[in-house]
Design brief:
Layout: E1 5-10, H1 17-33, E2 38-43, H2 46-53, E3 57-59, H3 70-87, E4 93-97, H4 112-125, E5 129-135, H5 143-154, E6 158-161, H6 164-172, E7 205-209, H7 222-241, E8 245-249, H8 256-270, E9 278-279, H9 286-294, E10 298-301, H10 304-312, E11 317-321, H11 324-332, E12 339-341, H12 347-359, H13 361-391
Parallel strand pairs: 1-2, 1-4, 2-3, 4-5, 5-6, 7-8, 7-10, 8-9, 10-11, 11-12
């Protein structure tokens, strides 16, 4: 019986816990379904992923010369092509598990958008099936990035999207999506952590998810970040003055700067922050984030996977999103009215909705819990499709449905 050789590809290892959570969920499925498979992850930070997930890894790009000229850059690009062509050899299938892989948030065309195209092209030349599984797509602002990503998607044998707007977006840029299904984000397949018993405070606790957000462009805009921080600080001060505790949530290592700036702004406005009124622990995975969220009563967050983790464990949530993906997820979970744009929200309106959410949090918690169970069942249906129609059923065990 032939051993399956499965490749995984993505922007993994850069500190984005949402991306790593998608990889973790896919590995959990694959290790249960194909315990004897040989797997390798082709990613941006292979050393990090190898240590974190105990999986063989390969780099997407060659090591760059810091002081090289044009000829050196050409040589490095040739090395990328040769290296990727070599790295995908002998695979049966190459999976792109989740993440917003088909958008250009914070990316230049010749960066990750080009890498997606290169890996898919080399796999196609090798005769290897490529599958985009529960991915996010759009916006793709730069025309060249759009061409790279649309071309990569065209090379795939299977595509599914984590929401309808991702599928519709790819259709608007010229991809035939008529046979592409929609399945939930892979992170809904992660197990809920066992909550840790903690002394229950008389004060309600708010999970406040912050992000080092500078706008969509790779160049960034300090003014956008400063205004966002100022609004969050105003809201946080209101929470403290009205008797709430705050647990700050993040979703990427770069968000630590936002944590520091927020706490500094709060202290500058109210003086010494009362002990135990603000908690900020560093998470190392989406499961860590869900564990932190277990201890809060409601969540207000910006990052997509902060919002997703809160909803997955049944917490009433307000989204301060920077893309439509937040809004669609909130609508699916029955909280479509509680969405704001990160660059345009008003603190007064946020406070008004927060009060409504607190008052009716029991009702919303029941709605969220039912919706989350339905999404997890849909993911199990996709897993069965992958086994039967893409990866192959030979040597496959039945995936565990209890995770």
């Amino acid at each position: 019986m032939a051993v399956k050789r499965i490749g995984l590809f993505g922007n993994f290892g850069g500190g984005n816990l949402g991306n790593e959570g998608s990889l973790e969920a896919m590995l959990l499925f694959l290790r249960q379904a194909y315990p004897d498979a040989d797997m390798v992850c082709i990613c941006t930070a292979p050393d990090v992923i190898r240590e974190q997930f105990s999986i063989p890894t390969l780099p997407i790009s060659a090591i760059r010369s810091l002081n090289g000229g044009k000829l050196t850059k050409v040589r490095d690009r040739i090395a990328d092509h040769v290296g990727v062509f070599r790295n995908v050899r002998n695979l049966n299938v190459l999976l792109v598990p989740g993440t917003g892989v088909l958008d250009d948030f914070g990316e230049r065309p010749i960066g990750f958008p080009y890498s997606v195209f290169l890996v898919c092209l080399m796999a196609k030349l090798r005769g290897i099936k490529v599958a985009f599984v529960s991915i996010g797509a759009g916006p793709i602002v730069h025309p060249l990035s759009r061409w790279f990503m649309k071309s990569a998607a065209r090379l795939a044998a299977y595509r599914s999207y984590r929401d309808t707007i991702s599928k519709e977006f790819m259709g608007t840029i010229g991809l035939d999506v008529s046979n592409d299904p929609v399945y939930p984000d892979l992170a809904f397949g992660l197990p809920n952590p066992v909550p840790v018993d903690v002394a229950k405070s008389k004060k309600l606790t708010v999970g406040l998810g912050v992000m080092a957000y500078y706008g969509w462009s790779a160049a960034g805009d300090e003014a956008i970040y400063d205004l966002y921080m100022a609004k969050l600080a105003t809201f946080a001060i209101w929470l403290l003055r009205n008797g709430y505790r705050i647990r700050i949530l993040i979703g990427e290592s770069t968000d630590q700067q936002a944590v520091d700036d927020l706490t500094k702004a709060i202290a500058g406005a109210i003086g010494t922050i009362p002990p135990d009124s603000i908690v900020a622990d560093t998470p190392h995975s989406l499961v860590d984030i869900m564990t932190q969220i277990f201890s809060v009563d409601v969540v207000v967050a910006t990052r997509f996977h902060n919002v997703l983790c809160a909803l997955k464990v049944g917490k009433p949530t307000i989204s301060l999103g920077y893309a439509r993906k937040n809004d669609v997820l909130m609508e699916e979970m029955g909280l479509g009215a509680f969405c704001h744009n990160v660059e345009r929200f008003h603190v007064d309106a946020l406070i008004q909705q927060f009060n409504e959410l607190i008052e009716k949090r029991g009702t919303y918690r029941e709605i969220i819990t039912k919706s989350s169970a339905s999404l997890q069942h849909q993911l199990q249906q996709q897993e069965q499709f992958l086994i039967q129609n893409l990866i192959g059923a030979d040597s496959a065990a039945s995936p565990c449905n209890g995770r």
